[in-house]
């Protein structure tokens, strides 16, 4: 069994990856700034050398839409080189980072290229958006003091279950690097307005969703399908309806 390090190991995705790998019998180091055993701050690289000592595989799940992913990746790459034992650095990226000119996407693409140029063994997996992103975006729009819920018009979204992505990352967390692997997309693509309507109905809201056309190259790229997986890569099985139903059951038990 391998010694595997997971950045963002207490996050939505990372915690699932950690649990799956530990069930398989691996020694797993879940990194975070608050970890008692392996306190690591990717913003300045502190703690990385100790955390990486003897590790063969790194699964890099830590990410922040607020920026800094490229800085964190540079610290991680440099520390992995110093460790000299890492044979596979697995990175989770997003479908469309090479065609949608959003700042966050551009940074994710920059990290991909940094890894590919690092001289380390790397594995890069791109996936479509998680189900909970649709819920969060809808929730934010629903808090606006408007009689409708405004969302970008005509943007098709292909949400995938976070647990299915975690399962794929756990499969890839082996000593042999695989390079860029096939993308993972959710089982169904629909306009965001439709997904939002499903979520609002499930949460008891009767507000109407209003599709709003936007300006800009990023919106145009999304309208062209830039955030959708290629045909044949809709390999997820858990649907958004499944996600909504499960969240409803959890809320009913008082755990959400």
UniProtKB/TrEMBL annotation:
<dbReference type="GO" id="GO:0044877">
    <property type="term" value="F:protein-containing complex binding"/>
</dbReference>
<dbReference type="InterPro" id="IPR016040">
    <property type="entry name" value="NAD(P)-bd_dom"/>
</dbReference>
<protein>
    <submittedName>
        <fullName>Nucleoside-diphosphate sugar epimerase</fullName>
    </submittedName>
</protein>
<dbReference type="InterPro" id="IPR036291">
    <property type="entry name" value="NAD(P)-bd_dom_sf"/>
</dbReference>
<dbReference type="Pfam" id="PF13460">
    <property type="entry name" value="NAD_binding_10"/>
</dbReference>
<feature type="domain" description="NAD(P)-binding">
    <location>
        <begin position="8"/>
        <end position="132"/>
    </location>
</feature>
<dbReference type="InterPro" id="IPR051207">
    <property type="entry name" value="ComplexI_NDUFA9_subunit"/>
</dbReference>
């Amino acid at each position: 069994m391998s010694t595997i390090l997971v950045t963002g190991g207490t996050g939505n995705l990372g915690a699932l990856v950690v649990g799956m790998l530990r069930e398989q019998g691996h020694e797993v180091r879940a990194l975070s700034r608050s970890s008692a055993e392996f306190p690591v701050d990717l913003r300045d690289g502190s703690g990385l050398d100790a955390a990486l000592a003897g590790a063969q595989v790194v699964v890099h799940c830590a990410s922040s839409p607020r920026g800094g992913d490229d800085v964190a990746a540079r610290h991680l790459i440099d520390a992995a080189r110093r460790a000299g034992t890492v044979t596979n650095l697995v990175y989770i990226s997003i479908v469309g980072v090479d065609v949608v000119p959003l700042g966050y996407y551009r940074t994710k693409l920059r990290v991909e290229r940094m890894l590919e140029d690092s001289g380390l063994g790397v594995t890069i997996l791109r996936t479509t958006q998680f189900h909970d992103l649709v819920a969060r975006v809808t929730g934010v729009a629903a808090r606006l003091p408007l009689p409708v819920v405004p969302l970008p018009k005509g943007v098709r979204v292909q949400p995938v279950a976070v647990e299915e992505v975690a399962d794929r990352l756990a499969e890839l967390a082996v000593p042999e690097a695989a390079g860029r692997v096939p993308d993972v997309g959710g089982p169904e693509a629909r306009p965001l307005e439709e997904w939002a309507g499903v979520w609002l109905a499930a949460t008891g809201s009767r507000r109407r969703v209003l599709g709003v056309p936007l300006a800009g190259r990023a919106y145009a790229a999304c309208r062209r399908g830039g955030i959708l997986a290629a045909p044949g890569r809709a390999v997820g099985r858990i649907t958004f309806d499944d996600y909504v139903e499960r969240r409803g059951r959890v809320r009913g038990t008082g755990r959400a």
